[in-house]
Write a structure and sequence with these properties.
By secondary structure, this protein is mainly α. The protein is built from five helices and no strands. Helix 1 runs antiparallel to helix 2. The protein starts with 8 loop residues before the first helix and ends with a helix.
C-alpha cells in the first residue's frame, strides 16, 4: 500500500478514452450489439447464439494476450487457458447485463470498469 501513487490526470484521461471508448464501447457494440444478435437470430435459439458469440469473444482476445505474454498460440492456450474461460465468463455477465437492461450502456460501463481496474491495480 505504501508504494501506491497518483498516476496523473493525463494517464486517467487516456485511460478513460482507451478503456471506455476504444475497448468497452467498441467490443460491446461489435459483440453484444451486432455479432450476438445476428447469431441468436440465425440459429433461432438464444443460448446457441450466446455461446458461439462467447467463444468468438474469448478467441478474439488471444492475439492481444499472446503479445502481452510474449508466447506462441499453443503455449498461450496451454499456460493461460484459464484466461480464455474467464473471458467467456465475462461475456456471459456482459450478456446478462445487455438483456436485463435491454441496452448496450450497462455492459459497456461494466466492461470499462473491469478493464480499467486491471490497469489501475496490476
Amino acid at each position: 500500500v505504501n508504494k501506491l501513487s497518483f498516476v496523473g490526470i493525463n494517464y486517467l484521461a487516456f485511460g478513460f478514452f482507451y478503456y471506455f471508448l476504444e475497448i468497452g464501447l467498441i467490443e460491446e457494440l461489435m459483440f453484444r450489439g451486432y455479432i450476438q444478435t445476428r447469431l441468436v437470430g440465425f440459429f433461432k435459439h438464444k443460448i446457441t447464439g450466446i455461446i458461439l458469440a462467447g467463444i468468438m469473444f474469448a478467441l478474439m482476445h488471444i492475439p492481444f494476450q499472446m503479445v502481452v505474454s510474449n508466447v506462441s498460440l499453443i503455449e498461450f492456450i496451454k499456460v493461460d487457458y484459464i484466461h480464455l474461460l474467464l473471458t467467456f465468463f465475462y461475456h456471459i455477465i456482459f450478456t446478462l447485463l445487455y438483456y436485463k437492461f435491454n441496452n448496450i450502456a450497462a455492459p459497456t460501463i461494466f466492461h470499462f470498469f473491469l478493464n480499467i481496474s486491471y490497469s489501475l491495480f496490476s
